[in-house]
Specification:
Elements lengths: L3 H15 L13 H4 L4 E5 L7 H10 L2 E4 L5 H4 L9 H13 L2 E9 L5 H4 L5 H18 L4 E8 L13 H6 L3 H13 L4 E6 L6 H16 L6 E4 L2 E3 L6 H10 L4 E10 L8 H20 L6 E6 L29 H10 L2
Helix pairs in contact: 7-9, 11-12, 12-13
The protein binds (3S,4R)-3-hydroxy-2-oxopiperidin-4-yl beta-D-xylopyranoside.
């Protein structure tokens, strides 16, 4: 005989399972871009566009695309110093054909020192000309289409103490090369919103403070800085509240905010197995969506996912079993996608 209290408890448990919980909707999930009151971006590589399932998934879910790699100097500048635009043009054409916004990433990044630039005469004037020519050519090519650019990427040192040295800072000056990049990008496309973009702003408050100090220094120097990008490559063990605090803090300058490359790694989280962390991933996505939804509408530039399906993630190169995105390997919405949508509605 089943004890009555046990029976009631199991009936309640069954009802709880049947009820479409916020993270497990009964029907198909509406597209992210239809549910969220802000643009949804997605990273894409040109070669992925020949996968019709992925192209359709991106067009259905996102309203904006960022070239994941092929608008970087490392791709565009050939060894002989000439430029190639085949892959970025293909992504721009895809965006136009599907009615998606295009976001440019990235003009100046310490991590890239194309040999053609390194070989240039060290006299400041020649180097400065090549720098100006590059920014004018790249930003000018997508003028009127790109809604924004990551003008300077990852300028703050990893520990948050000062700014990183780079080929550009060595030749043109620590603040000056950044100010100049913003000015040149503005001249090449006056309507694009120009961003300073960085990572670890959630997990390292000291780095975030330095990032905000740099933004203020650029504004003071007259740079046409229009927005702040936080890459948000986070791990599932990120303390609760960290993403929210970062997003709110970044908004404090009143500039546009871009969650620019989000993924939530289970493999990089410490203390539990990747399986143990899976439940936390959805919560981190939801916290970010809810904090972003809470910003004034004019500051919500876009929320970009660094890939749509788990199997497309750059993190798979580091750990083949990581599951950092909102859609599974087959392109099915994960519980994290439902949690993200629910939270994005505020
Ligand atoms: C990564 C891409 O995802 C990879 O495919 C590529 O090989 C290297 O770059 N911060 C950034 C991005 O600003 O451009 C990086 O993208 C991820 C870290």
């Amino acid at each position: 005989m089943i004890h009555r209290r046990a029976f009631v408890a199991s009936a309640l448990a069954a009802a709880a399972c049947d009820r479409p919980a916020r993270s497990q909707p009964a029907g198909p999930l509406p597209p992210l871009k239809a549910a969220a009151p802000f643009p949804i971006g997605c990273a894409v590589r040109a070669e992925q566009l020949s996968d019709p399932e992925l192209a359709a998934l991106i067009a259905r879910q996102a309203s904006q695309v960022t070239p994941e790699w092929q608008m970087k100097m490392e791709y565009i500048v050939r060894d002989d110093g000439t430029f190639r635009f085949d892959a970025p043009d293909a992504i721009a054409a895809f965006a136009r054909a599907r009615g998606l916004r295009l976001f440019g990433h990235t003009l100046v990044w310490y991590a890239q020192r194309p040999p053609a630039f390194e070989r240039l005469d060290e006299r400041r004037v020649d180097f400065a000309d090549a720098f100006a020519n590059y920014i004018a050519a790249v930003v000018g090519r997508y003028r009127g289409q790109a809604v924004g650019w990551d003008v300077v990427n990852e300028a703050v040192s990893a520990d948050g103490e000062g700014w990183r040295p780079s080929l550009w800072s060595e030749r043109l000056g620590a603040l000056e090369h950044m100010r100049l990049a913003f000015e040149l990008a503005r001249a090449a496309d006056p309507s694009a919103v120009l961003f300073l973009n960085d990572y670890d702003l959630e997990s390292r408050p000291a780095k975030r403070r330095e990032f905000l100090r740099l933004a203020e220094a650029l504004l003071k120097a007259g740079a046409p800085l229009g927005g702040l990008g936080t890459q948000t490559h986070v791990a599932a063990d990120l303390p609760r509240g960290a993403v929210k605090e970062a997003i709110q803090d970044l908004a404090s300058l009143g500039l546009a905010v871009h969650v620019s490359e989000m993924d939530v790694s289970a493999a990089r989280a410490r203390g539990l197995s990747a399986d143990g962390w899976r439940g936390r991933q959805a919560a981190v996505w939801a916290e970010a969506a809810s904090a972003f939804a809470g910003l004034p509408p004019a500051q919500r530039f876009a929320f970009t996912l660094w890939g749509m399906r788990d199997r497309d993630s750059w993190l798979r190169a580091e750990n083949a079993s990581d599951t950092p995105l909102l859609f599974d390997d087959q392109g099915r919405a994960k519980p994290a996608a439902a949690a993200f949508e629910a939270a994005s509605q505020g």
